[in-house]
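Entry type: protein chain
Record version: 2
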Amino acid sequence: MEILKKFFLAILITGAACTTAPASKTPIVFVHGNGGNSAQWRAQVAYFQKQGRPAMAIDLVPPPDGNLSLAAMAGSIDRAVPWKRFFIAGHSYGGAVVATYVAAHPEKIAGVIYVDSAAGKLPLTDKQKETIATRIRADKMRFVHAWFEPMLKPSSSTVKEEVYSSVERTPTEAFIGAFMSLTVFDAKALIDAYRGPRLAIVASDLETPASFQNQFPEIETVRVSGAGHWVMLDKPDEVNVAIDTFLRKAELRH
């Protein structure tokens, strides 16, 4: 289960938050992790609205054909985002979606922020995948509680409740499909494909050799202590400052 600690699941429709601030600042887009939703970025959207930066958090919504591949889910970004060029941040599984999108559309990206992101392929056999899918269908929340509990250990009861509630509302097949998409996530190729400004924000209390910062040590990293995997919910102020500092530095380069 150790490798599972860095990945999540979901596709929940809740509605995006957006601003119409002046175009002098490059916009930023936030992408939730699996089992999450756009509201989990509310502190970040509000912060950048106040700063006068165009910002939105999107929901990952499958296309009409129900394709749950990373490439198909990355299409949610183009369907939701009105800007031609922007910064983008992805949490957990959302980091895999973002990496997939950025590799295909580098010309649209001013910089990338990986927030406790997925950092590698889930090495599961077909039999293991079948077993996991069966367990999730039988009792999704039992599976999720067993999996998420270590990642939520540093988190407050309020954050835990929000995370579990979001997963509970997530359609089971969407949850499974997103999980399985990580078994073919070529993290090294996709993340390395973009050589523009990059930042990792990670939960230092959960660090393992498989963590993003150890798989990609060349990427600037901000470690946040006292936070669970949902860093932006546990420590919104620290995350906001880290992202804001990164955006300002990146914009000075251009």
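Comment: The CA atoms of residues 39 and 208 lie 28 Å apart.
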